[in-house]
Amino acid sequence: MTHTVSFVGLGAMGLNSARLLAAAKDIRLQAFDLRAEALQIIIEAGGQACASAAEANREASHAVIFVVNGKQTEQVIFGDQGLHETAQPGLVIISCVTMMPEEAAALGERCKARGWTFIDAPVSGGMVGAAHGTLTIMAGGNRQKIEESRFIFDLMGNRLKVVGERPGQGAMVKAINQLLCGVHLAAAGEALALAEHAGLDKQAVFDVVSQSAAASWMLNDRGPRMVADEYDTVTSAVDIFVKDLGIVSDVARSLRFPAPIAAAALQSFLGVSGRGMGKLDDAAVLRYYQGFAE
Fold first, then answer.
1. 174 catalytic, yes or no?
2. Annotated catalytic residue: which of 174, 202, 243, 279?
3. PANTHER family this protein is in (predicted)?
4. Is the model's pTM score more than 0.70?
5. Quick one: 173-293 is in which CATH superfamily?
6. Which listed site, 34, 143, 185, 278, has its alpha carbon 20 to 30 Å from 272?
7. DSSP H helical ranges for 46-149
């Protein structure tokens, strides 16, 4: 059986996931993005390039959205030339977007009123995970529809975690995930910048802490870039954590929950972004701490 799937949002991660779907024998992928070069890559992978989200969604049983935030997701679904213009009854919309939990919940209700299923399914794993189909997917929504969508999820990731039965619950888990990622990354930058300021060899310090109880996934992955001070090859940008830790801050405030460590991490990413380095790889958070030694 061949499934027609629409895909909107061919950014750094979305493009890699879309390529895997386009290459699958049982999927007819119809994709839309504003960048012609991204659409050309999808054509070369076996997919079809479309001029709008509405065109991409024609005759689709499933739609995958991989844009930047909740506002863009709403526009993709309900805006001019959005999915709603060609959506079939029973359409399953898979949102892989990091957004506020209440945004995901509201989109879920609006889609439900139209007879569609909205699966709130943000992902973790970065560009590498997207390219290799090893993303972790945290899905909130109708369990039966999630299971029926495994032919998509199994291509995109190797860890599908159903975290709840309502849209918004996936977004909440993603916020918690990003809290930890952002804090661990900022802490790695602080530690290696302190080592440098103390006159130590960053490589030697990294070799020790990356193999000790101080190690974290973020330290081991970003540490080599911090040691080399090389941030131009971007796997995830500084400004992504400005956005995501901003969501964490908003979630914590809405729940009247103190999150001081996450707030401190956010300030470090804001500090780097404010110095014009928001588009650099997020390992450049180290430069925030280097600034105090200048």
1. yes
2. 174
3. 3-HYDROXYISOBUTYRATE DEHYDROGENASE-LIKE 1, MITOCHONDRIAL-RELATED
4. yes
5. N-(1-d-carboxylethyl)-l-norvaline Dehydrogenase; domain 2 (1.10.1040.10)
6. 34
7. 53-56, 70-78, 101-113, 126-132, 143-148
